[in-house]
Amino acid sequence: MTKPELAKQGEGSTEQVNFSFRCQPKRDSKYGVLLSYINEDSAELTRRERVLNALAAFWLPFAYHHQGEISVEELQRLARSSIYQLQLHVQYLRDTFELSNTEPPVYAFAKSVRNSSRPAVENYVEEDDDCETETDIVSSWH
Question: What's the pLDDT tens digit per position in 52-99?
């Protein structure tokens, strides 16, 4: 499945989005290491929580903006919430890896990607990451 698919679940029930993601990187590649970690269930967070929390913090305000059925005030609330979640994660990274607030950022992954409607963002997918085709499947969350 290449795009999220809406499935009706009988009369009176709500629609659900089925989303599958497939990627089969080499185990010792950066995405192999990442997906191995995500696939481990821990006492803190399940793999589903790790993935959905990260996606929501990064993309949820954009998803609602794209949908176009939400007020400006609610979009701003979502954006503030995402910024807060991302700032908490930045602090978690600093605390875990003993980094100071004054160290300059290092862009180890990165090719800058520009779109006329948004500022430059880092593109973490590199050509040798083995996650390029939408036909690869590692996990499916429903």
Answer: 999 999 999 999 999 999 999 999 999 999 999 999 999 999 999 999
In DSSP terms, 122 is beta-bridged to 112
Asked if 99 contacts 89 with a C-beta cutoff of 8 angstroms, the reply is no
What token pair was written down for 137? Answer: 């499947």
Q: Is 86 within 8 Å of 57 (Cβ atoms)?
A: yes
Six token digits for residue 50: 């790790």
Task: Give the 3-state secondary structure of residue 21.
Answer: strand
* 86 phi, psi to nearest 5 deg: -65, -40
CA distances from 75 to 65, 85, 110, 120 (A): 7, 15, 29, 21
Backbone angles phi, psi at 121, to 5 degrees: -130, 160
Q: Residue 61 is which amino acid?
A: P
Mean pLDDT of 10-39: 89
Beta-sheet strands, E only, within 3-109 = 5-7, 16-21
Domain chopping of the chain, boundaries: 1-40, 55-127
The amino acid at residue 82 is S
Q: Which amino acid is at 124?
A: Y
